[in-house]
């Protein structure tokens, strides 16, 4: 397969971003898009000749021969869209959360594995150069056995009172800080350290939103004795842009990482890694790998190019599958359950 025919469903902010990136890939041909916005579709029809437009995703599936789709709709629509794609043996990249229920996610994961289809979810931190390097250093034993950790994410997404009339204010629709923001911080923990065995001490706090949480915290416990905390707030006006941070304390030292740098504290000099005793710093410029097309960050290009590579080469292992996303959904559901059971006064 020299060219793959791709359709994009949902042309909002992320849809436009993904369109621009995937359109730069030499082995991709975007043949159609789906959206309900007349303005967006008119612009595409005017400036992107040859790209067909639809207002109904079912008509897209019925009319076009697709190899893959990118799904950027509100989360409540992900399941029916992805299910049809799986049944038609179409590869899928879905924005997160790819469903709002683990049981539905497991159904999709099994369907795609049965049909040997590439399935990927947009947990972009897995493709960030700094977090990839952090994983490499940790797994090679730089800081020894992990003892405790802290995963944080902050943004100024919601900074005024919400009226509760959009999908972002509905838990079933995939709204709220847990699905929208905390899912990234949770998935980063799963990626670097593994899925926790138990969740306790969960707290969901409203700040501006009418129906759902704007801040979340929880404690993660592991059978091997490791523990960690989750702290997320999407109503923190001290942050200009969304920021992920993770800190891991190990038996030999500590790693502190965000999207831009890694700070490493070591109890002893490690000549194998060329790090001295005490504090060491790696910046994004020290670890980044260039991409062919840049929008927003290297990781956004890398995740979509990885999706294409997995389609063209079945021997490549996908590092952000539906199964991985189900593990994140499992933690999310555990946080909600723990809060309902133990967190309310």
Please count the beta strands (DSSP E, at least 2 residues each).
Answer: 14
Oligomerization status of the protein chains: single chain
Overall pLDDT: 94
Quickly count the helices. 10
| Sheet with the most strands: spatial strand order | 8-9-10-7-11-12-13-14
Fold and architecture overview:
This protein is α/β, with parallel strands linked by helices and 345 residues long. It has 2 domains: 4-123 and 299-320, NAD(P)-binding Rossmann-like Domain (Rossmann fold); 125-293 and 328-343, Dihydrodipicolinate Reductase, domain 2, CATH 3.30.360.10. It contains 10 helices and 14 strands. It has helices spanning 13-22, 38-47, 57-63, 78-87, 102-114, 129-139, 176-193, 284-287, 298-312, 322-343; strands at residues 4-9, 28-34, 52-54, 68-71, 91-94, 119-121, 146-154, 198-205, 215-221, 227-233, 243-250, 253-258, 261-266, 278-283. The strands form 2 sheets. An 8-stranded mixed sheet has the order 8-9-10-7-11-12-13-14. Helix 4 (78-87) packs parallel to helix 5 (102-114) and helix 7 crosses helix 10. The longest helix has 22 residues, at 322-343. 44% of the residues are buried. The model has no long low-confidence stretch (mean pLDDT 94).
Top keywords for this entry?
8-stranded mixed beta sheet; alpha/beta; 6-stranded parallel beta sheet; 2 domains; 35% helix; 345 residues; 10 helices; globular; Rossmann fold; single chain; Dihydrodipicolinate Reductase, domain 2
């Amino acid at each position: 397969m020299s060219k793959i025919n791709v359709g994009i469903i949902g042309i909002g902010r992320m849809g436009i971003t993904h369109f621009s990136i995937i359109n730069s890939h030499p082995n991709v041909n975007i043949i159609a898009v789906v959206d309900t916005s007349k303005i967006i579709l008119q612009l595409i029809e005017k400036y992107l000749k040859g790209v067909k437009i639809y207002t109904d995703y079912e008509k897209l599936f019925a009319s076009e021969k697709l190899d893959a789709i990118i799904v950027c709709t509100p989360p409540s629509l992900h399941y029916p869209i992805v299910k049809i794609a799986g049944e038609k043996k179409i590869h899928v990249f879905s924005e997160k959360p790819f469903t709002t229920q683990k049981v539905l996610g497991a159904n999709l994961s099994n369907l795609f594995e049965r049909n040997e289809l590439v399935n990927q979810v947009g947990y972009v931190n897995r493709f960030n150069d700094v977090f990839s390097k952090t994983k490499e250093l940790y797994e090679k034993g730089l800081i020894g056995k992990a003892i405790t950790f802290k995963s944080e994410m902050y943004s100024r997404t919601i900074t005024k009172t919400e009226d509760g009339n959009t999908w972002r204010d509905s838990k079933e629709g995939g709204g709220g800080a847990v699905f929208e923001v905390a899912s990234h911080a949770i998935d980063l923990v799963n990626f670097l350290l593994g899925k926790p065995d138990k969740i306790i001490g969960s707290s969901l706090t409203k700040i501006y939103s009418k129906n759902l949480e704007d801040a979340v915290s929880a404690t993660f416990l592991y059978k091997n004795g490791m523990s960690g905390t989750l702290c997320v707030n999407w109503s923190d006006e001290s942050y200009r842009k969304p920021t992920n941070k993770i800190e891991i304390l190990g038996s030999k030292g500590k790693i502190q990482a965000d999207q831009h740098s890694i700070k490493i504290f070591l109890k002893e000099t490690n000549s194998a890694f060329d790090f001295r005793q005490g504090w060491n710093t790696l910046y994004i410029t020290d670890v980044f790998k260039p991409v062919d097309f840049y929008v927003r960050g290297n990781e956004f290009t890398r995740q979509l190019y990885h999706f294409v590579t997995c389609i063209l080469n079945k021997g490549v292992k996908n590092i952000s599958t539906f199964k991985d996303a189900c593990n994140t959904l499992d933690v999310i559901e555990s946080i909600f359950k723990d809060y309902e059971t133990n967190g309310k006064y």
